[in-house]
Amino acid sequence: MPANMTLDKDTPEDRIAELVDAIKRSPDQRDALLELLPEQNTLYEGRGTNQVIHIRGYVLAAFEQVGLPEAAIPYVLDELQNGHDAYAVAGAARALRGLQNPSSEVIPFLFKAINNIRKMDDAVTFERYKPDWPLTDHTSALKEIFQSFKWLGSNAQTALPDLEALFQDRSSFSETIRREIADAIAAIRASETADRHTFVPLSLLTFPSADQKKPDLAPTILEFEDQETNRLTYAEFFSQKPSVVVFFYTRCNNPNKCSLTITKLGRLQQIVREEGLQGQLKTAAITYDPEYDLPARLKAYGNNRGILFSEEDRFLRTLYGLKELQDYYGLGVNFNGSIVNQHRIELFILDDQGRIVETFARLQWDIQDVLNHAKALFRAGSKP
User: Fold this and answer.
1) What global pTM score does this model have?
2) Where are the strands (E) in 80-238, listed by range?
3) Whether 362 contacts 247, CB under 8 Å
Protein backbone atom coordinates (compact mmCIF):
# COMPACT_ATOMS: atom_id res chain seq x y z
CA MET A 1 0.00 0.00 0.00
CA PRO A 2 1.35 3.48 -0.81
CA ALA A 3 3.18 4.93 2.18
CA ASN A 4 0.80 7.88 2.44
CA MET A 5 -2.34 5.73 2.27
CA THR A 6 -3.88 4.57 5.54
CA LEU A 7 -7.32 2.96 5.45
CA ASP A 8 -9.53 2.48 8.50
CA LYS A 9 -13.17 2.53 9.54
CA ASP A 10 -13.38 6.30 8.92
CA THR A 11 -12.02 6.17 5.37
CA PRO A 12 -14.75 7.20 2.87
CA GLU A 13 -15.77 4.63 0.28
CA ASP A 14 -14.69 6.93 -2.53
CA ARG A 15 -11.17 7.04 -1.09
CA ILE A 16 -11.01 3.25 -0.96
CA ALA A 17 -12.20 3.05 -4.56
CA GLU A 18 -9.49 5.54 -5.58
CA LEU A 19 -6.86 3.23 -4.10
CA VAL A 20 -8.27 0.21 -5.95
CA ASP A 21 -8.36 2.15 -9.22
CA ALA A 22 -4.77 3.33 -8.69
CA ILE A 23 -3.58 -0.24 -8.12
CA LYS A 24 -5.31 -1.36 -11.31
CA ARG A 25 -3.01 1.08 -13.09
CA SER A 26 0.02 -0.20 -11.13
CA PRO A 27 -0.31 -4.02 -10.88
CA ASP A 28 3.02 -4.28 -9.06
CA GLN A 29 1.17 -2.95 -6.00
CA ARG A 30 -1.50 -5.66 -6.04
CA ASP A 31 -0.48 -6.91 -2.59
CA ALA A 32 -2.19 -3.80 -1.25
CA LEU A 33 -5.47 -5.30 -2.51
CA LEU A 34 -4.72 -8.53 -0.67
CA GLU A 35 -4.42 -6.57 2.58
CA LEU A 36 -8.04 -5.44 2.18
CA LEU A 37 -9.49 -8.96 2.08
CA PRO A 38 -9.36 -10.26 5.70
CA GLU A 39 -12.80 -9.85 7.24
CA GLN A 40 -11.38 -8.54 10.53
CA ASN A 41 -9.62 -5.60 8.84
CA THR A 42 -10.50 -2.41 10.74
CA LEU A 43 -11.48 -0.94 7.38
CA TYR A 44 -14.84 -2.75 7.70
CA GLU A 45 -15.58 -1.89 11.31
CA GLY A 46 -18.83 0.02 11.74
CA ARG A 47 -19.91 -0.26 8.10
CA GLY A 48 -23.23 -1.64 6.92
CA THR A 49 -23.33 -5.09 5.32
CA ASN A 50 -24.20 -3.76 1.85
CA GLN A 51 -21.32 -1.30 2.00
CA VAL A 52 -18.90 -4.07 3.00
CA ILE A 53 -20.13 -6.27 0.14
CA HIS A 54 -19.67 -3.45 -2.35
CA ILE A 55 -16.12 -2.69 -1.20
CA ARG A 56 -15.06 -6.35 -1.24
CA GLY A 57 -16.70 -7.02 -4.60
CA TYR A 58 -14.89 -4.08 -6.16
CA VAL A 59 -11.57 -5.26 -4.71
CA LEU A 60 -12.10 -8.83 -5.94
CA ALA A 61 -12.97 -7.72 -9.46
CA ALA A 62 -9.72 -5.75 -9.67
CA PHE A 63 -7.69 -8.98 -9.52
CA GLU A 64 -8.77 -9.80 -13.07
CA GLN A 65 -6.71 -6.85 -14.24
CA VAL A 66 -3.72 -6.98 -11.86
CA GLY A 67 -3.42 -10.76 -11.58
CA LEU A 68 -4.63 -13.05 -8.81
CA PRO A 69 -1.92 -13.94 -6.26
CA GLU A 70 -1.97 -17.36 -4.62
CA ALA A 71 -2.81 -15.90 -1.20
CA ALA A 72 -6.02 -14.35 -2.56
CA ILE A 73 -7.37 -17.57 -4.08
CA PRO A 74 -9.13 -18.80 -0.91
CA TYR A 75 -11.08 -15.51 -0.66
CA VAL A 76 -12.23 -15.87 -4.25
CA LEU A 77 -13.24 -19.52 -3.85
CA ASP A 78 -15.00 -18.68 -0.58
CA GLU A 79 -17.19 -16.11 -2.32
CA LEU A 80 -18.01 -18.49 -5.17
CA GLN A 81 -18.79 -21.36 -2.81
CA ASN A 82 -20.73 -19.44 -0.18
CA GLY A 83 -21.71 -16.03 -1.56
CA HIS A 84 -25.32 -14.95 -2.07
CA ASP A 85 -24.86 -11.38 -3.29
CA ALA A 86 -24.69 -10.83 -7.06
CA TYR A 87 -22.11 -8.02 -6.84
CA ALA A 88 -19.58 -9.94 -4.73
CA VAL A 89 -20.06 -13.21 -6.64
CA ALA A 90 -19.58 -11.37 -9.95
CA GLY A 91 -16.39 -9.83 -8.57
CA ALA A 92 -15.09 -13.24 -7.51
CA ALA A 93 -15.89 -14.79 -10.91
CA ARG A 94 -13.92 -11.98 -12.55
CA ALA A 95 -11.03 -12.43 -10.13
CA LEU A 96 -10.56 -16.04 -11.24
CA ARG A 97 -9.57 -14.79 -14.66
CA GLY A 98 -6.58 -13.12 -13.03
CA LEU A 99 -4.99 -16.52 -12.42
CA GLN A 100 -1.79 -17.01 -14.36
CA ASN A 101 -3.02 -20.37 -15.67
CA PRO A 102 -6.61 -21.66 -16.01
CA SER A 103 -7.32 -24.79 -13.98
CA SER A 104 -10.11 -27.35 -13.88
CA GLU A 105 -9.84 -27.23 -10.07
CA VAL A 106 -12.18 -24.21 -10.01
CA ILE A 107 -15.06 -25.88 -11.88
CA PRO A 108 -16.96 -27.11 -8.76
CA PHE A 109 -16.80 -23.61 -7.29
CA LEU A 110 -18.26 -22.06 -10.43
CA PHE A 111 -21.14 -24.54 -10.49
CA LYS A 112 -21.78 -23.91 -6.80
CA ALA A 113 -21.90 -20.18 -7.53
CA ILE A 114 -24.50 -20.78 -10.26
CA ASN A 115 -26.74 -22.62 -7.82
CA ASN A 116 -26.28 -19.94 -5.17
CA ILE A 117 -27.01 -16.96 -7.38
CA ARG A 118 -29.33 -18.14 -10.18
CA LYS A 119 -32.46 -16.77 -8.47
CA MET A 120 -30.74 -13.63 -7.13
CA ASP A 121 -28.75 -12.46 -10.12
CA ASP A 122 -28.71 -8.75 -10.83
CA ALA A 123 -27.16 -6.15 -13.13
CA VAL A 124 -23.83 -4.86 -11.80
CA THR A 125 -20.86 -2.91 -13.10
CA PHE A 126 -17.21 -2.61 -12.13
CA GLU A 127 -16.37 0.19 -14.52
CA ARG A 128 -16.75 2.68 -11.68
CA TYR A 129 -17.36 2.21 -7.97
CA LYS A 130 -20.40 4.51 -8.01
CA PRO A 131 -21.85 4.36 -11.52
CA ASP A 132 -24.61 6.51 -12.95
CA TRP A 133 -28.02 4.89 -13.08
CA PRO A 134 -29.62 3.45 -15.09
CA LEU A 135 -26.67 1.34 -16.14
CA THR A 136 -25.86 1.45 -19.84
CA ASP A 137 -22.87 -0.91 -19.68
CA HIS A 138 -23.41 -3.71 -17.20
CA THR A 139 -22.76 -7.34 -16.46
CA SER A 140 -24.19 -9.81 -13.92
CA ALA A 141 -22.98 -12.58 -11.65
CA LEU A 142 -24.17 -15.34 -13.98
CA LYS A 143 -22.64 -13.64 -16.99
CA GLU A 144 -19.29 -13.38 -15.22
CA ILE A 145 -19.45 -17.03 -14.14
CA PHE A 146 -20.03 -18.24 -17.69
CA GLN A 147 -17.33 -15.87 -18.96
CA SER A 148 -14.99 -17.69 -16.58
CA PHE A 149 -16.04 -21.06 -18.01
CA LYS A 150 -15.25 -19.63 -21.45
CA TRP A 151 -11.85 -18.44 -20.17
CA LEU A 152 -11.09 -21.95 -18.85
CA GLY A 153 -11.25 -23.29 -22.40
CA SER A 154 -9.98 -26.85 -22.68
CA ASN A 155 -9.61 -27.03 -18.89
CA ALA A 156 -13.41 -27.09 -18.67
CA GLN A 157 -13.95 -30.14 -20.88
CA THR A 158 -15.39 -32.11 -17.95
CA ALA A 159 -17.96 -29.34 -17.39
CA LEU A 160 -19.53 -29.68 -20.84
CA PRO A 161 -22.35 -32.14 -19.93
CA ASP A 162 -23.52 -29.95 -17.05
CA LEU A 163 -23.22 -26.76 -19.09
CA GLU A 164 -25.27 -28.33 -21.88
CA ALA A 165 -27.93 -29.32 -19.35
CA LEU A 166 -28.04 -25.74 -18.09
CA PHE A 167 -28.41 -24.45 -21.64
CA GLN A 168 -31.48 -26.64 -22.10
CA ASP A 169 -33.07 -25.26 -18.92
CA ARG A 170 -35.12 -22.46 -20.47
CA SER A 171 -37.17 -21.92 -17.31
CA SER A 172 -34.19 -20.94 -15.13
CA PHE A 173 -32.19 -18.67 -17.43
CA SER A 174 -33.00 -15.71 -19.62
CA GLU A 175 -32.14 -15.80 -23.30
CA THR A 176 -29.25 -13.43 -22.59
CA ILE A 177 -27.71 -15.86 -20.09
CA ARG A 178 -28.41 -18.84 -22.33
CA ARG A 179 -26.36 -17.12 -25.03
CA GLU A 180 -23.52 -16.79 -22.51
CA ILE A 181 -23.78 -20.50 -21.77
CA ALA A 182 -23.75 -21.30 -25.49
CA ASP A 183 -20.67 -19.11 -26.01
CA ALA A 184 -18.88 -20.90 -23.15
CA ILE A 185 -19.73 -24.32 -24.59
CA ALA A 186 -18.50 -23.29 -28.03
CA ALA A 187 -15.25 -21.90 -26.62
CA ILE A 188 -14.54 -25.04 -24.63
CA ARG A 189 -15.20 -27.30 -27.61
CA ALA A 190 -12.98 -25.18 -29.86
CA SER A 191 -10.04 -25.14 -27.43
CA GLU A 192 -6.94 -27.23 -27.96
CA THR A 193 -7.24 -30.11 -25.49
CA ALA A 194 -3.46 -30.24 -25.17
CA ASP A 195 -3.35 -26.70 -23.84
CA ARG A 196 -4.00 -27.62 -20.21
CA HIS A 197 -2.60 -25.92 -17.13
CA THR A 198 -2.76 -26.38 -13.40
CA PHE A 199 -2.13 -24.23 -10.38
CA VAL A 200 -1.59 -24.87 -6.66
CA PRO A 201 -3.84 -27.82 -5.65
CA LEU A 202 -6.87 -26.69 -3.71
CA SER A 203 -6.03 -29.17 -0.97
CA LEU A 204 -3.23 -26.77 0.00
CA LEU A 205 -5.63 -23.84 0.16
CA THR A 206 -8.59 -25.34 2.00
CA PHE A 207 -7.16 -24.75 5.45
CA PRO A 208 -5.30 -21.43 5.28
CA SER A 209 -3.48 -20.21 8.33
CA ALA A 210 -5.11 -17.41 10.28
CA ASP A 211 -4.93 -13.92 8.80
CA GLN A 212 -3.16 -12.60 11.88
CA LYS A 213 -0.84 -13.91 14.60
CA LYS A 214 -2.74 -15.31 17.57
CA PRO A 215 -1.74 -14.94 21.24
CA ASP A 216 0.09 -17.94 22.67
CA LEU A 217 -2.15 -18.34 25.71
CA ALA A 218 -5.80 -19.43 25.57
CA PRO A 219 -8.28 -17.08 27.30
CA THR A 220 -8.74 -19.55 30.18
CA ILE A 221 -10.71 -17.26 32.52
CA LEU A 222 -13.16 -16.13 29.85
CA GLU A 223 -16.69 -16.83 31.09
CA PHE A 224 -19.47 -18.38 29.01
CA GLU A 225 -23.15 -19.13 29.38
CA ASP A 226 -24.47 -22.24 27.62
CA GLN A 227 -27.85 -23.07 26.07
CA GLU A 228 -29.16 -24.20 29.49
CA THR A 229 -28.01 -20.97 31.26
CA ASN A 230 -25.12 -22.80 32.95
CA ARG A 231 -22.05 -20.62 33.48
CA LEU A 232 -18.51 -21.91 33.02
CA THR A 233 -15.08 -20.65 32.09
CA TYR A 234 -13.04 -21.43 29.00
CA ALA A 235 -10.66 -23.55 31.09
CA GLU A 236 -13.50 -25.51 32.68
CA PHE A 237 -14.99 -26.63 29.39
CA PHE A 238 -12.01 -26.79 27.03
CA SER A 239 -9.89 -29.14 29.11
CA GLN A 240 -9.20 -32.85 29.72
CA LYS A 241 -10.35 -33.84 26.20
CA PRO A 242 -9.86 -32.55 22.65
CA SER A 243 -12.62 -30.32 21.26
CA VAL A 244 -14.11 -29.26 17.96
CA VAL A 245 -15.23 -25.62 18.01
CA VAL A 246 -17.24 -23.73 15.39
CA PHE A 247 -18.35 -20.10 15.32
CA PHE A 248 -21.75 -18.87 14.14
CA TYR A 249 -24.64 -16.57 14.97
CA THR A 250 -28.39 -17.14 14.71
CA ARG A 251 -29.16 -13.97 12.72
CA CYS A 252 -26.92 -15.06 9.83
CA ASN A 253 -28.93 -14.86 6.59
CA ASN A 254 -26.53 -16.92 4.47
CA PRO A 255 -27.66 -20.58 4.55
CA ASN A 256 -24.24 -21.73 3.29
CA LYS A 257 -22.48 -20.38 6.36
CA CYS A 258 -23.91 -20.54 9.89
CA SER A 259 -26.93 -22.75 9.30
CA LEU A 260 -24.93 -25.28 7.29
CA THR A 261 -22.06 -25.16 9.79
CA ILE A 262 -24.36 -26.09 12.68
CA THR A 263 -26.12 -28.77 10.64
CA LYS A 264 -22.73 -30.34 9.82
CA LEU A 265 -21.67 -30.09 13.46
CA GLY A 266 -24.79 -32.09 14.38
CA ARG A 267 -23.87 -34.72 11.81
CA LEU A 268 -20.33 -34.89 13.19
CA GLN A 269 -21.78 -35.52 16.66
CA GLN A 270 -23.87 -38.37 15.25
CA ILE A 271 -20.84 -39.98 13.61
CA VAL A 272 -18.89 -39.69 16.87
CA ARG A 273 -21.63 -41.68 18.57
CA GLU A 274 -21.94 -44.19 15.73
CA GLU A 275 -18.19 -44.88 15.93
CA GLY A 276 -18.28 -45.35 19.69
CA LEU A 277 -16.21 -42.23 20.39
CA GLN A 278 -18.68 -40.49 22.66
CA GLY A 279 -16.88 -39.26 25.75
CA GLN A 280 -13.57 -38.78 23.93
CA LEU A 281 -14.34 -35.54 22.06
CA LYS A 282 -16.14 -32.34 23.05
CA THR A 283 -17.96 -30.06 20.63
CA ALA A 284 -18.93 -26.43 21.00
CA ALA A 285 -20.53 -23.71 18.90
CA ILE A 286 -19.71 -20.18 20.02
CA THR A 287 -21.82 -17.26 18.85
CA TYR A 288 -20.39 -14.07 17.37
CA ASP A 289 -23.52 -12.31 18.67
CA PRO A 290 -23.71 -12.90 22.45
CA GLU A 291 -26.00 -9.98 23.21
CA TYR A 292 -28.73 -11.32 20.93
CA ASP A 293 -28.10 -15.06 21.10
CA LEU A 294 -29.48 -15.77 24.56
CA PRO A 295 -29.65 -19.36 25.86
CA ALA A 296 -33.18 -20.13 24.67
CA ARG A 297 -32.38 -18.86 21.18
CA LEU A 298 -29.16 -20.89 21.06
CA LYS A 299 -30.96 -24.05 22.14
CA ALA A 300 -33.77 -23.66 19.60
CA TYR A 301 -31.31 -22.98 16.78
CA GLY A 302 -29.33 -26.11 17.62
CA ASN A 303 -32.39 -28.31 18.07
CA ASN A 304 -33.70 -27.25 14.67
CA ARG A 305 -30.45 -28.37 13.02
CA GLY A 306 -29.92 -31.76 14.63
CA ILE A 307 -27.53 -30.84 17.45
CA LEU A 308 -27.19 -33.45 20.21
CA PHE A 309 -26.73 -31.42 23.39
CA SER A 310 -24.95 -32.92 26.38
CA GLU A 311 -22.45 -31.93 29.07
CA GLU A 312 -19.73 -32.21 26.46
CA ASP A 313 -21.67 -30.76 23.53
CA ARG A 314 -22.76 -27.18 24.13
CA PHE A 315 -23.62 -23.86 22.51
CA LEU A 316 -21.87 -20.95 24.20
CA ARG A 317 -22.08 -17.18 24.40
CA THR A 318 -19.45 -15.01 26.04
CA LEU A 319 -20.53 -12.98 29.06
CA TYR A 320 -17.58 -10.67 28.49
CA GLY A 321 -14.30 -10.69 26.59
CA LEU A 322 -15.47 -11.32 23.03
CA LYS A 323 -12.48 -9.29 21.82
CA GLU A 324 -10.08 -11.65 23.63
CA LEU A 325 -11.79 -14.58 21.92
CA GLN A 326 -11.46 -12.86 18.54
CA ASP A 327 -7.78 -12.22 19.11
CA TYR A 328 -6.97 -15.74 20.27
CA TYR A 329 -8.72 -17.50 17.39
CA GLY A 330 -7.91 -14.81 14.80
CA LEU A 331 -11.60 -14.79 13.93
CA GLY A 332 -12.56 -13.60 10.46
CA VAL A 333 -15.48 -11.44 11.57
CA ASN A 334 -16.35 -7.76 11.79
CA PHE A 335 -19.18 -5.69 13.21
CA ASN A 336 -21.34 -2.64 12.75
CA GLY A 337 -21.94 -1.88 16.41
CA SER A 338 -23.01 -5.24 17.82
CA ILE A 339 -24.30 -6.50 14.46
CA VAL A 340 -22.12 -8.85 12.41
CA ASN A 341 -21.51 -7.28 9.01
CA GLN A 342 -19.35 -10.09 7.59
CA HIS A 343 -17.69 -13.33 8.64
CA ARG A 344 -16.04 -16.41 7.24
CA ILE A 345 -16.65 -20.11 7.97
CA GLU A 346 -14.49 -21.15 10.94
CA LEU A 347 -13.82 -24.47 12.70
CA PHE A 348 -10.98 -25.23 15.13
CA ILE A 349 -9.71 -28.43 16.71
CA LEU A 350 -8.33 -27.91 20.22
CA ASP A 351 -6.14 -30.11 22.35
CA ASP A 352 -7.01 -31.16 25.91
CA GLN A 353 -5.83 -27.79 27.23
CA GLY A 354 -7.91 -25.65 24.90
CA ARG A 355 -5.04 -24.82 22.56
CA ILE A 356 -5.55 -24.62 18.80
CA VAL A 357 -4.16 -27.63 16.95
CA GLU A 358 -5.92 -27.37 13.56
CA THR A 359 -7.79 -24.59 11.76
CA PHE A 360 -10.41 -25.15 9.04
CA ALA A 361 -11.33 -21.73 7.69
CA ARG A 362 -13.22 -20.07 4.86
CA LEU A 363 -14.05 -23.02 2.59
CA GLN A 364 -16.54 -25.71 3.54
CA TRP A 365 -14.94 -28.37 5.74
CA ASP A 366 -15.46 -32.10 5.31
CA ILE A 367 -17.00 -33.84 8.33
CA GLN A 368 -14.94 -37.03 8.10
CA ASP A 369 -11.75 -35.05 7.54
CA VAL A 370 -12.36 -33.04 10.70
CA LEU A 371 -13.06 -36.22 12.66
CA ASN A 372 -9.88 -37.85 11.34
CA HIS A 373 -7.83 -34.88 12.55
CA ALA A 374 -9.48 -35.13 15.96
CA LYS A 375 -8.79 -38.88 16.12
CA ALA A 376 -5.12 -38.18 15.53
CA LEU A 377 -5.08 -36.40 18.90
CA PHE A 378 -6.41 -39.53 20.59
CA ARG A 379 -3.58 -41.58 19.12
CA ALA A 380 -0.64 -39.18 19.35
CA GLY A 381 -1.54 -37.02 22.34
CA SER A 382 -2.10 -33.28 22.21
CA LYS A 383 0.53 -31.41 20.22
CA PRO A 384 -0.43 -27.80 19.47
Assistant:
1) 0.91
2) 123-124, 139-140, 223-226, 231-233
3) no
